[in-house]
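## retry 2 of 3
previous attempt timed out at serialization; input unchanged, resubmitting
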Amino acid sequence: MDASERLALQVLESRSVTLGRLVYLGWYRPIAFVAKCWREGPLNLWLAAGGRRAMESAVASLPSFEAAPRDAPAVYFLTGRAFWYQTAFCAHTLLAHAERPLRIVIVDDGTLDASHADEFRRIFASVRIVWADEVERRLDIALPADGFPALRQRRLVYPHLRKLTDIHAGETGWKLVLDSDMLFHGHPGFILDWLDAPDRPCHMADIEDAYGYSIELMTELAGAPIPRRVNVGLCGLNSDTIDWHLLETWCRATLEREGGHYLQEQALVAMMMAGVARAAAPEEQYKVRPSRVETIHPSAALHHYVAESKAWYFRFGWRGALYHSLQARRRTDEQALS
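## retry succeeded, writing output
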């Protein structure tokens, strides 16, 4: 997300929602679109839009996976109406290349509907869907609004925060959360090893520090040096050890001192990992913002498609990932029969 798009999000989060919406639609959104066209090219964006529609339609042709055992490790996704098909592709390519059972847990961001749930159940026989009303009931107990006003209000206007609150609050144990805009192209050894024996938080390595807040402020609040280049497209945390009172303080302080930001959730996680033993996925196998060449001819096991790589994701990435995942499934089936 570039500066104009981030500014548009901040306008949407302003106190005057109606005025902010008008300013966004009449000024910042057109500026953001023009900037994106200049950066990525109108033809490329048009082709990417067609690829996105084709990707959503292609979910119906994804083959199903058998139910995983109850003791199989779980992988979590926060998703809804806008991203459900990306979630399906990410989870499908993960299971195909894992070549072993994993349980998929879908956490509703408040926009998931029955048709999406039906597709998830068709593809992933043992999928668990955590609906928004269940999440709200749990939050009312674990993070009551009168005790955690910043976190409860912020998650309403900033959905990324729900990857922390909605998945971990009131829960126990280690959990691996994946973003939907990722695809697996090879064996996810790092992820499988972590799921088998989680003993520290894990994350991807970004191409640069992308926190939205100054390192000085983050260091002051965390009381320890901030780890560099933490990317939470892949993020493993222990729900039991999250200090929600501290997160409430950090959430409020970052908003008051440097404003709202699209990357606030990533900043909060980096602060949580300050001074703590952690595991970073190897960069050569877990790539953030892959190039066009890497997208078409992947050398990595996982791609996280952010910023301009989104166009390559929709134009080329999902088609190649689907082909590779079908090949991986065919090999697994052949080995099972031999």
